[in-house]
Amino acid sequence: MTQRRMDEETGMTIEYAWFLADTRGVGFALQYLDSRSVPHAYVMRAVGRPELRRTHERRRAPRTAAN
């Protein structure tokens, strides 16, 4: 269960980094990834090939107030 939790957190971090790249620039997104100890490759691949980006919510169930 710990691995799944870490993967979900990494996924959310990467999605937020994509948002930052779109709104504040790639450099800012890379700094954010450094602060979270996540490799740059995820964002750089999406910058090079935007079709690889996730276009839907990562979670299977909708977010609720409890989450």
Tell me about the biggest sheet?
Answer: none
Give me the number of helical elements.
3
Mean pLDDT: 76
Strand content: under 5%
Rg measurement, Å: 13 Å
Could you give the count of β-strands? 0
Structural class: mainly alpha
Note the overall shape. Answer: globular
Order of helices and strands: HHH
| Helix percentage | 55-70%
Task: Describe the 3D structure.
This protein is mainly alpha-helical. Helices cover 60% and strands 0% of the residues. It has three helices and no strands. Helix 1 packs across helix 3 (41-48). The longest helix is centred in the first third of the chain and has 22 residues, at 2-23. The two termini are 17 Å apart.
In brief, what are we looking at here?
The chain is mainly alpha-helical. It has helices at residues 2-23, 26-35, 41-48.
Would you spell out the secondary-structure blueprint of this structure?
Elements (H helix, E strand, L loop, with lengths): L1 H22 L2 H10 L5 H8 L19
Give me some keywords for this one.
3 helices; mainly alpha; 60% helix; 67 residues; globular
